[in-house]
């Protein structure tokens, strides 16, 4: 894929940990994320009640569903917002040895196309206490940089969260560096 921004391996996420479970094969999992902003140029991040880490809205793409349609669906479910996807940021692949998964995550820039409504969370998301918060660009990059710092210094103990932190930081950094959408915010 020509739009692959990065390939992340377990050693990139947890450089100071030794894992005994090296997967010999991986199952592909297609996912999608969006850097969503509203008319005030605030950016949506999702969090949960189990940890203090934030990530971009999005999730798994269903079989037979286009990536764009899946991202729009996931953002609507998690944030209650209908979005128009305006620009592809890129793709990040990661190899999660523990789960034997090769995640291929597509990320787009998305603008809120209507009013902010109520999220329609899955039962698991309700149990996890998933919520959306809106922040200015400076807050978002600061939070994501801090999360990467915690990750690299061994403070993140949730396996999948570690991958998500690094992946979302790379997407946001690429978007801020390349598109100049959020300068002076």
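^ Assign residues to that structure.
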């Amino acid at each position: 894929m020509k739009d692959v921004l990065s390939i992340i391996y377990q050693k990139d996420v947890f450089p100071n940990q030794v894992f005994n479970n090296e997967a010999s094969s991986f199952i592909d999992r297609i996912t999608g994320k969006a850097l969503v902003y509203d008319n005030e140029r605030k950016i949506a991040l999702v969090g949960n009640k189990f940890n203090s880490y934030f990530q971009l809205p999005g999730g798994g793409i269903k079989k037979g569903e286009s990536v764009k349609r899946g991202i729009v669906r996931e953002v609507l479910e998690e944030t209650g917002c209908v979005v128009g996807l305006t620009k592809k940021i890129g793709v990040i692949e990661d190899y999660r040895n523990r789960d034997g998964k090769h995640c291929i995550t597509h990320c787009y820039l998305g603008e809120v196309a209507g009013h902010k409504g109520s999220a329609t969370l899955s039962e698991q998301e309700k149990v996890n206490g998933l919520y959306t918060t809106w922040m200015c660009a400076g807050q978002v990059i600061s939070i994501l940089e801090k999360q990467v710092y915690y990750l690299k210094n061994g403070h993140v103990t949730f396996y999948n969260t570690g991958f998500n932190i690094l992946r979302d930081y790379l997407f946001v950094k690429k978007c801020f560096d390349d598109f100049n959408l959020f300068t002076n915010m």
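The chain has one domain: 4-15+30-178.
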